[in-house]
Amino acid sequence: MKRAVIVLFIFLSFASIAQDKLIYTEVVKVDSSIKKEELFSRARSWFNSSFNKSQNVLNIQDKESGELSGTAIIRYVPNVYVGSSVTTGKISYVISVKVKDGRYKYQVTDFIHYGSPSSIERACNFDLIMKTDTFPRDPYNGQKRWCDKVWADIRKQIDSSIQPLIFSLKTNMGRPAKEDDNW
Length: 183
Description:
alpha+beta
């Protein structure tokens, strides 16, 4: 019986995290005459133009299922100055585009913050970024107010990086793929 309780607790914990993590997602309808193959080519073209080395970003390129997915990075330089050098670092995230005839779905999720150590202090990682407005875990060195400020700054920088990325995706998915992008 103990085993079932533990498994149930773990499942409920992951379900709660999945519901609360920061996600940008939308199903976008395009002209119904645009086929899955064309949308896949457009999405592939967009990955190529949006990421310097799309081959390093893309983990999944399945033309048959219509899925492109990969991991990318946002550089994080904090705007919270006191004690924030250990939060300078990167935010990794997963971006996926799934296509079907006449529509596609994008999802940008799993934002994870990694700080950098200083010469006197270990790195301060804020880990998985959630939808909450305040830092949802035990504060770093007991500094709740500071953690809340850094958390808000991380969320703001994610949003200001991802919104233009989504805009460029939607713009490019509305244009025919270039001849040389059809591989």
